[in-house]
Predict the structure of Tail-specific protease.
Amino acid sequence: MLKIKSKSIFITAIFAVVMLFACYTSHSGERNKGNSPQGKNEILLRVLMQGLNTAHFQPEKLDDAFSKKVYNLYLKRLDFNKKFLLQSDIDQLQKYQNQIDEQVQNGSYEFLNASTKIFAARSKEGQDMYKEILAKPFDMEQEESTELDPEKLKFPQDKAAQKEAWRKYLKYQTLVQMAELIDMQDKALEKKDNKTVTKSTTDLEAEARKKVLKTYDDMFRRMSQISREDSVSAYINAIANSFDPHTEYFPPKDKANFDIQMTGRLEGIGATLSERDGQIKVAEIVPGSASYRQGELKAGDVIMKVAQGKEEPVSIEGMRLDNAVSLVRGKKGTEVRLTVKKPDGSIKVIPIIRDIVIIEETYAQSALINSEKPVGYIKLPGFYADFDNKGGRNSADDVRKEVEKLKQQNIQGLILDLRNNGGGSLQDAVTMAGLFIERGPVVQVETSGAQPTILEDRDPQVQFNGPLVIMVNQFSASASEILAAAVQDYKRGVIVGSASTFGKGTVQQVFNLDNVLPSEFNSLKPFGSLKLTTQKFYRVNGGATQLRGVAPDILLPDLYSFVEQGEKDQDYPLPWDEIKPARYQPWPKQPNIGKLKSNSASRVAANPNFKMVTELAQKMKKQSENTSRSLKMSTFLAENKRSKADAKRYEELEKGSTPMDIRSLKVDLDKLGADTTKQNIANNFIKNLKKDIYLTEATNIIKDQWQVK
């Protein structure tokens, strides 16, 4: 979510007036009902619908089409693996498909109540089913397979088909556990540990089945703890997310988690988690955190299990987000082991030592690349700004200082690295663009029903006017996309990276519902908060960054090149569109993109590391498309072994690359003094850059600009 310094007073005022009006008119004469839990939920739904219909950037028309969106999204999340509900249940709920729009306007939860009742009954049946299935050994030699993509599955026609679907899925889970046990046993044997006892396939299958049984015991126990408030929140979020993926409701407890700020004392792994379709996914890696430094956990990974050190892992499939977060968080120095599923379907155990987030690593950092002419490098993890502290740090000022330090080293080119930068302060993106262009518009911001506001750089000074490369990838989002788009539209520099940036071109604001409800509802507070999409971004050329993101001028092979990830892959994203271009003057000394692109393509084609990246990316695409898994043990283990071998090949890519001549600036090293912790952090920063094949190619593109005109 982008943070905007100026509060939207107009929207807030309208929001408050409408909400107050809705509450007083809808509940006059119904005071007693309003003070009950049922009355509170009705009030909550009415208030949220008024807010969504009044203040959202692109309000939904409350009709049958809207009703179907909510219906489909809610059922998708209710039973994402299609293991509980039967087709007859779906047929029974079908009558609500076109009724939800009327129900939400009346504050009614009729569809939620009906679906909850059916699901509760089916859950009880499923509990008996999994125990019966796991009580007997599986036939591991039988030629059969199971489909893992929920989108390709259908709801079972009857209980017999449902039981068979459960049997295959539980057999798959047992095979996953067996693969882990066999891997652990093989590693122990390699170490020639005399205490290691070689277990038979029968023993391994029994042990694996026992682990799966415990996993599902835990899962069903958690499901039994789901409260009415949890169900209401899930339903309301299906309604909110039908407007767009970033509009959502925060119950009071979730809002408290959302409000956790980077204070320098945040203990944990430093990953932002989200719950979608019953799965806990990594939404973002906090720069400078334990996860960031460990390097294996990535945005988009699905966390399947969590283990505390060497303890038995706990499955978090179907777990509430707050409970999953509480398992992942922990004290500094303790170990958490995450079993994650990568986008290509491979499964990996990632050990992370929890730590305090190191603030220094969230800030801009620079280094000097030594070549025939020096090149400056700046890593910007986020567009940070301390809005509450007038003297606090902000990314624009920090980048300005880093550029100035690099200029003292007589740099003849500059690389600004925005890879994995999820955004932040809009104003800092505008100010930062002004470091590299003369005065002019940087981004257009549109509020629904109003003319776009043009945010521009008013300072004619250009801090650095030499060759410029901006590095991006598919996780560069929001403010990163604004800066990259401005540099590209002005033809000021070269955008280098994977196929496209994330494509998030919207702005959200958070409204505390307690602040807009009248005092007569104080006994029912807190109500939570609503995060609402209120604005949309447009480039100076008129095109939105929404959905399409920013396509780099020069494409480089990426491991996830063929795996779809981004705003366009979310449910119900706002569409791409365009408005009238702003008036701006392109950079007079434009880079020769055609020639630079041709030179880069030749180097990439001859680079064995990039060849391997392309090969592995194609394999990943094939694996992600082949969502059916064999349940014959020998076939399953062979496929698992190949997947691990491919992952290992990618991990060893850097070992074969030629290290760059890159170092920290002396002025920065002098500031570290005798602090060994900070010295190690600085050394690791440089060490990781030395064999970064993408940074090497970005440097070559800078060098090309010295010759290509």
User: Anything to note?
Assistant: The chain has three domains: 60-242, 265-356, 359-707. The mean pLDDT is 87.
